Amino acid sequence: MQASDVIVIGSGIGGLVTATQLAVKGAKVMMLERYLIPGGSAGYFERQGYRFDVGASMIFGFGHKGTTNLLTRALQAVNVSLEVVPDSVQIHYHLPNGLNLKVDRVYEKFLQNLTGYFPNQSQEIRRFYDECWKVFHCLNSIDLLSLEEPRYLMRVFFQHPLKCLGLVKYLPQNAGDVARRYIQDPQLLKFIDMECYCWSVVPADMTPMINAGMVFSDRHYGGVNYPKGGVGQIAQKLVEGLIKAGGEIQYQARVTKIIIENRRAVGVQLASGQVYRAKRIVSNATRWDTFGKLMSQQEIPSAEINWQQRYHKSPSFLSLHIGVKAEVLPKGTECHHIILEDWEKMTESEGTLFVSIPTLLDPDLAPAGHHIIHAFTPHWIDEWRGLCARMYEVKKEEAAWRIIERLEKIFPGLNAGLDYLEVGTPLTHRRFLGRQDGTYGPIPRRKLRGLLGMPFNRTPIPGLYCVGDSTFPGQGLNAVAFSGFACAHRIAVDLGM
Ligand SMILES: Cc1cc2nc3c(=O)[nH]c(=O)nc-3n(C[C@H](O)[C@H](O)[C@H](O)COP(=O)(O)OP(=O)(O)OC[C@H]3O[C@@H](n4cnc5c(N)ncnc54)[C@H](O)[C@@H]3O)c2cc1C
Predict the structure, then answer these.
(1) Beta bridge partners of 325
(2) Which of 118, 186, 242, 358 has a Cα at 20 to 30 A from 293?
(3) CA 285 to CA 434: how far, in whole Å?
(4) Is the CB of residue 480 below 6 angstroms from any atom belonging to ligand 1?
């Protein structure tokens, strides 16, 4: 038995930001990671000279100004840095009815491109996106810490009363409601749906305005930037910083139980049987894993059961990690693409196809003369359960060729130029990311009031905190970094640091 101030279960970006923030404040921190490397959904793997991102590739939070550049800040806090490559276009959309649009890093250029498709809606478009900027300016002027800490809330309110009131106004709103205040054109509203869906995996009506304001503005402010060496570098650097700050991390250390004594979380038990105790326990696993697997049924708080009635698991993904000959990509190809042929299928399994080609920003991730294409599309785990090994392989192959056929329309010659192909299913995501059903994260079961229903870091079990994408403000690396700053802040106050 060993005692720490804080144990963090899992080294996703949310867990790592919590751990590094607490370590620099002087806490004795122990991270326990079930896998071989840190990063979770922001991890990587290497095959035949390619370094593939397992998930995230479109990275926000690396800006230099304001307060929302949380990845820059998290790295700086532990005296490490990362070179990033700016992306001049956030997304190239390939949508139904010939809507073929690039979201330029320059705001005015983006508005101009969009207005080109909807010339009668130019004022409406500007009004909607300008309103998103209002949310962003409120967020970007205050220190983003724990909303569960009353003294911080009071300080921020007295420093920036109007910005705080602005945020309170937007907190219960969804992007779809705000969009419809300005926009009537059904095609344009569908485009706004896709603008939300491609990171929130729900349409605009169910996407909180706070998150939409953040994404729709920061892409033109701090911008989208790709870490040199691949997304996995973010976690590697944070671990380096954690160790420099006196923290510890153990890999292949799967927590199987959160030890609760007298209704308080006091430690964890690993699959090896090893027990660690700490004053505070943080879980970076999803809520379904934390409350469904790491404690007994009787210990699950009723608030958690209520939360699960409001939110459910989003689907997982079918992922193709592809290596191709460089000549397959036409000149001027952008890094990130969204492909949809039929609006009715946007939220369906295999409807929206997400594509990232990180080697356009960092060629060193692939052998010379080659590129990486990561294509992924939502898939439910149920379709993959109970198959024998042969049927599983057949199903994977069939699905992969359906995706390659769709990609061929944009990258003709892809099939002929294939050099490497690895297919991941929801089962792969579950296994390697340690996420129940391989889910991308929580999504509302029905339309809710903005972000008001998302839980913060404290849980009803004293001593136990959650961090990551099943806490406020949700999915995405910059969002989970926010959750990490907030979690560390709340714990530091609770520990009197
Ligand atoms: C295919 C895909 C594409 C994405 N694209 C983007 C994108 O372009 N941009 C973006 O910003 N976001 C993107 N995301 C979302 C983003 O990656 C996630 O929201 C974010 O990384 C989640 O971070 P987290 O801290 O919540 O935890 P996770 O990344 O889920 O990490 C949790 C960690 O905890 C460990 N763990 C779990 N249980 C245990 C246990 N019992 N014991 C020990 N360790 C445990 C896991 O192994 C893992 O390392 C994408 C996600 C996916 C899957």
Answers:
(1) 370
(2) 242
(3) 8
(4) yes
